[in-house]
Design a protein that fits this description.
Elements lengths: L5 E10 L2 E11 L4 E5 L6 H7 L6 E8 L2 E2 L5 H6 L2 E4 L11 H7 L9 H11 L1 H5 L10 H13 L5 E5 L7 H16 L3 E6 L2 H7 L2 E6 L2 E7 H5 L2 H7 L3
Parallel strand pairs: 3-8, 3-9, 6-7, 7-8
Antiparallel strand pairs: 1-2, 1-4, 4-5, 9-10
Length: about 240
């Protein structure tokens, strides 16, 4: 198989004296949806943030398309083609929906902005309806859609999503995962961090289970969904 797009090898990372990641290894190939699942506090979000150097990696290596990330500043990493949709959405509350989307072009400039705005409005029709509203007036689900669309405006090669279902009603969660499936069908490579194990593993080609800063299991989404240990620990049996 070809070289992975993202390759994480034996990574340790710490917050001061607290070791948050311990010998974490995983990989993602171009065009895959890979999910990292586990309980709150397992280290999932820490792994995502370690790609951008916060926390810094104390041991091991992270490569994106052959480029070592551990020696790169955060803005340079974004310019390589990695977009992060953070936990909690973090939209620009006092800016309009459309202004938020335009902010997503920061790593690449505005050459394709009009074309890409049209694509986002096709993918997220509610955002076109709300495009002149301040982001603070949107519902939680609409803000999550805006955060995803803002990430896509940078035309990333790898889209990182940190807990996109957090705090959303079940019907909205279904909408979000349906949209992610559509995004992936266009060839987007997605690394999804999620507590909603059922939805995440149904969507993913492959998945990893993390606990206490370590990778405990790996396999296809179907394999992990049918794994008794996973079902009992994260899906109520």
């Amino acid at each position: 198989m070809n070289q992975p797009l993202l390759d994480i090898q034996e990574v340790d990372a710490s917050y001061g004296p607290i070791q948050a990641l311990n010998q974490v290894s995983m990989h993602i190939h171009q065009g895959e949806i890979v999910t990292l699942v586990g309980a709150n506090g397992a280290g999932k979000s820490t792994l995502l943030m370690s790609l951008f150097g916060n926390p810094g990696v104390t041991r091991g290596e992270i490569h994106f398309d052959g480029t070592a990330l551990t020696s790169q500043p955060g803005h340079k990493i974004a310019s390589l083609g990695i977009a992060l949709v953070p936990e909690g959405r973090h939209v620009f509350a006092q800016m309009s929906v459309e202004e938020n989307l335009i902010m997503g072009t920061t790593p690449i400039g505005t050459k394709h902005v009009h074309e890409d705005l049209e694509k986002m409005y096709e993918l997220f029709p509610i955002l076109e309806e709300r495009k002149q509203q301040n982001a603070s007036t949107l519902s939680g689900g609409e803000q999550q859609m805006l955060a995803i669309a803002r990430g896509l405006m940078s035309r990333p090669r790898l889209l990182l999503l940190d807990e996109p279902s957090l705090g959303l009603a079940p019907i909205v969660v279904q909408q979000i995962f349906s949209i992610l499936k559509e995004v992936a069908s266009g060839g987007m490579t997605i690394f999804l961090v999620e507590q909603n194990v059922h939805h995440a593993l149904k969507l993913a080609n492959r998945g990893y289970v993390m606990a206490n800063g370590r990778i405990k299991l790996g396999g296809t989404g179907t394999e992990l969904l049918s794994n008794r240990e996973v079902r009992e620990a994260y899906m109520g049996g």
